[in-house]
Amino acid sequence: MIPNHIRRELSVKTPSKIVFLILDGLGGLPAGADGQTELERARTPNLDALAAKSALGLSTPLVPGLTPGSGPAHLALFGYDALEHNIGRGALSALGVGFDLGPQDLAARMNFCTVDQAGIITDRRAGRIPTVLNERLCARLRAEVQLPGVELHILTEEQYRAVVVFQGPGLDDRLSDSDPQHTGVPPQAIAALDPAAARSADLANQFVTQAQRVLASEHPANMVLLRGFATHPSLPTFADLYKLTPGAIAVYPMYKGLARIVGMRVLGAAHSVAEEFDLLQEHWARHDFFYLHVKPTDSAGEDGDPARKAAVIEEFDALLPLALALQPEVLVVTGDHSTPSRLKSHSWHPLPLLLRSAYVLPEGRAGFSERAAARGSLGHLQHADVLDLAMAHALKYDKFGA
Predict the structure, then answer these.
(1) What Rg value do the Cα atoms of the chain yield, rounded?
(2) Of the candidates 282, 102, 269, 114, which has an alpha carbon nearest to the alpha carbon of residue 184?
(3) Range name among 50-59, 84-93, 299-308, 342-351 with the lowest pLDDT average
(4) SS3 for 294?
(5) Residue 143: which domain range?
């Protein structure tokens, strides 16, 4: 990872364009009797042909053995030290839905979930309820939950995901989560991780208690889980570090929030992978860096559905020629983190990485997969190196030193 002060010194503005195509949760493990990963199972003629003309490698999101959330994994891909800048999911969610998060605001990611009569979590995602039901439930909570001394904003993200923002003086984000991250146990009490956060913990617990009362008659979304308490983050932008004019294309709000934090302009409103590629073509002339995020690969992995994950990869592969036709100087295809269907969760495994440029040594053999990438000429990198490598291949860095 190149230090930021060196990036500022060496980066140059050029007409060359960089495209990052990020399939969320792309990496996998053998998921059936055939011993193939989801990527190996998928029929990907376009990716395979592109791999033969590109350089391949593996990329670890943070450090070996550490399973990343989507936030730190993306920040690393964008060239930031994600261990230093650990941005809470609440801020990402709030910014992702377009909420103007102020310096005194405290945001938390909220999942609608299902609990049984004993208060034990049976489904952390409430069966992935439809967004229209989420909107109705958020409206109920806005109307019926009140806390002393703070103003509440409860906003739908998508499906079972929402965000709650506490507005008022003296709020502190040093709080534990109520989400235990697995089923078979009750939600956790939110605890202050510093004495100064005691009032904030009390307010958050009051919110959860009132929400449980309001939702008691609902099914399957009869409870909420809170995690990722955060205030507004501050990071150097892409324009500052790389002299880029970046655009972001994503369906799911949280990734729009990530993009806004690093100074990307969110382009349009897409509702499918196909619409995302349409936006890439529509805005091509106005930006020199594009981040395009594909979410359903991760959702399928979390649901333990390798066939569906392979199908999403195949859908992406069929659309890939639309990006290739634009002839970007640098094209990167990878994921933010691995989500093997076998684990039904994020994992620590490295990601296959493809880099296409006029200045790579092509692999010369077809095939894009975890195993093919492990044999690639790029070797084993870290996510924080990928954008620097793309900048170099786009001829956007000057020489360092005499």
Answers:
(1) 21
(2) 114
(3) 84-93
(4) strand
(5) 92-230
